[in-house]
Task: structure prediction
Amino acid sequence: MALLQISEPGQSTAPHEHRLAVGIDLGTTNSLVAAVRSGVAVALPDARGEVILPSVVRYAGNAQPVVGQAAVAAAHEDPLNTVASVKRLMGRGVADVKRLGANLPYEFTATESQMPRIRTAAGDQSPVDVSAQILRVLAQRAEQTLGGELAGAVITVPAYFDDAQRQATKDAARVAGLKVLRLLNEPTAAAIAYGLDKQPEGVFAIYDLGGGTFDISILRLHRGVFEVMATAGDSALGGDDIDHVIAEWAMQAAGVTDDADHRLLRRLLRDARAVKETLTQADRAELCIERDDGSRWCDELTREDFHALTDPLIDKTLLPCRRALKDAGIRADDVQGVVLVGGSTRAPRVREKVAAFFGREPLGDIDPDQVVAIGAALQADILAGNKPDQELLLLDVIPLSLGIEVMGGLVEKIVERNATIPIAKAQEFTTFKDGQTAISIHVLQGERDLVTDCRSLARFELRGIPPMVAGAARIRVTFQVDADGLLSVSAREQSTGVESTIDVKPSYGLTDAEIERMLRDSMASAEDDMKSRALRELQVDADRSLEAVRAAVAADGESLLSNEERARIEHCLNELAAARDAIDTDTIKRAMAALEKATETFATRRMDASIRDALRGHRLEEFSE
Amino acid sequence: MAITLTETAADRVRQSLASRGKGAGLRLGVRTSGCSGMAYVLEFADDVGSDDQIFESHGVKVIVDPKSLTYLDGTELDYKKEGLNEGFEFNNPNVKDSCGCGESFNV
Result:
């Protein structure tokens, strides 16, 4: 039986035509999924009521990888097989990853393509594979919650993600079997969540302070299009740093040193976090440390002291804010709205400082952890076609200019940064030498003038140009960017019509064979998924029988069963209770069959007894009327 | 002639109306389409027509157009949870049979 949701007036969709679409915030630390239900966008919780899914995946042998809190819990004991913060590796080449830091705890393997792979107990995993696992869990949660198959998803990405990183995100969705309706910039999603896209135009600042990173984006809304004017940030500054300064304060006061027991430090960090959260409401909070020698230190942290400790950190976020305003060429009072994103913006002090800097109260009513996913869900609902009267469709822009290499190692830009997509643009080029019959086209992305400073996306050749004097050939190069920000480039010699096209497979690129392998893998695990589902369903059936029979025995066992019969039933109950926890469906089925057989006569007697009860005291005539 | 809400359904509707910030009540109705004849309409109501019938159940205004009412008379709207999924269900005594998923029905 389908359960219905309330629609906006006049917008009920025909039965079976309401298309389920979700917004997914695929984050570095945490991920969320949200959907529009009864007209309101809400984040969807899992069975335990948790909305946030930690972006952590643990691989173990042939079993289905574990995603989320359970993987976080295991990270400590099994660091090599537990992958966290994989978003930092998306769309990166092996060389990039090495430069990002030797401190990543994983082992990387070399492959035929340039994509890095992480060696785990379940084989080598690419960042795309790992992200796909996170998406798969969120998609499953959404399908269970919404009661149907998803038509598609809007997935958010940071505004500064380049083509390769965006393509990698799309590939991850494909591996997870999810249709991407659109990739949406995270700050744009946050602005949509507050309905800022409904205004005619304006300039907005999105202040995003997460657990480990800080981002500020300046957006300009013009005729329904959000344009990213500037972004800045600090990739190593977040709420975790606030926990650290509190912990350091306590360690200093209590005379505990850095080389203290690992568990003590971990506990202290957890308590420091609790103090931080308490101080968003209360004026003071207590912190205690149990030293290695068993003695105990306790002290109270007042809100003033807390501010003195954390103000320097919050002030550090204002530097990138200043830089972003400068890059955008505007002043703080040009900003018409400030949106808060990220759990750390719950701190009242952060809100105060942001308000003082921009000279206006920031928008923070929507849960800052959920605001990006909620904006994405609103966009997904429109893209899926559930709002027939919504004509205005938010457009996105190209984050970095696209161009080709010309003589001298220079970049000729063809599509400028901030052009709205979808877009097609063409430019004519010519040959450099007499009798030149081929031209090599090198596609680049970036704002710099030199090829070496831009990111190389692809190279291809146009052959078969008839020999002519230099400068006589007319070669038209067309760049086309689809609604997802993905690029195809074609080159055509105008006089002969010879043509060559490339869909830009960013140079980190997955080879077709690799994509095929990943798709095969996802199909291979489909069977595992099906088996584990069958088992879980059977366990539920078993629980139901156990409960029913136990209740029946408790009610009528005394009057309707002989001792022998009763013992036989009790025995079968125990057998089934034991079999229920086994992972073998056949054992459970056998135990259930045995229980059914043992209770057959009991059931008949109960039925007879209840009919007798029902008839007692009535005359036959009453029933035959 | 009457249409009622269960208490759970009424609570849910009140919450939805509050978070939407406007609305005169809840509109129930039927229209033709779907795989088995008729389909339910469940919408927020901003306008009330002159022919509309209004019922009040647990403090929620239920608005029904007269044509739909003949198909819906005696219906109780319930709100149910099934695992992670939750939503509204029409308990309509006029229904003879419905399609497997319950989104459309015959009278």
Observations:
- Residues 512-560 of chain A form the longest helix (49 residues).
- The two ends of chain A are 36 Å apart (CA to CA).
